[in-house]
Amino acid sequence: MARTLQTDATSDEVAYQRIKSAIVSGYFKAGERLRELELAEKLKISRTPVRQALQMLEREGFLSKSAYKGFMVRKYSLKEAENIYQIRAALEGLAAYLLAQSADAGLILELRRQLDFASEALAEQNLAKVAETNNEFHRLFASSCGNSMLADMLLNLRGCISILRVSTWTVSGRPAQTQREHQVIMDAIERREPEQARAAAVLHVENSWQVAGSVLKHEVFDL
């Protein structure tokens, strides 16, 4: 059965959101070629907003482009992926530390709501929804830390992190473990324990790397 991406989209922004969601949910795989005409037909819109969406996603790190193959979902080497996770651990650890110092009740409630949405998606075994809520949790986590430069660094990594994160969803038990690790981070933030929040965030990223690295090693071996 052919895959479809149905929508009534008529704007650049909606085309961008639909294609990005398809990437971060794993609908489009790392290394997969995205053809402008095919996407326009699936989305039932003209090629211009699709082209602009692809260009934006390339700037954000979701896609790469070559003269011969056009746009493809970005694929990272094992070393590149390891470097990304090392940077992510340091940045998210600091963000958790700052949130434990400054997060107000409203922000904590909103972060908890995202975790509740993820729990519901897990119960429904809807991994695409789990990925979506997980990305929103991390977006809110970064943007609310109170350090605009740190937030920009984390948000600038969102493309590569989202792509690499998809590989961990294929490992049995990892989405549920991710949810538990997020809960530990949030518990430390709510208790106003900055060092514990930092440690929990760093451990979460390190655990994620163990899974993602293992998947990537098998992909390299399979080649």
- What share of the residues lie within helices? over 70%
Count the E strands: 3
Q: What would you call the structural class?
A: mainly alpha
CATH topology heading of the largest domain: Four Helix Bundle (Hemerythrin (Met), subunit A)
**Arrangement of strands in the largest sheet:** 1-3-2
What coarse outline follows from CA principal-axis ratios? Answer: globular
Approximate strand percentage: under 5%
Task: Describe the main β-sheet briefly.
Answer: 3 strands, antiparallel
Helix and strand string, N-terminal first? HEHHEEHHHHHHH
Low-confidence stretches: none
Tally the structural domains: 2
- Radius of gyration equals 18 Å
Account of the protein in words:
Strand 2 and strand 3 form a beta hairpin. It is built from 10 helices and 3 strands. A 3-stranded antiparallel sheet has the order 1-3-2. By secondary structure, it is mainly α. The model has no long low-confidence stretch (mean pLDDT 88). The two termini are 27 Å apart.
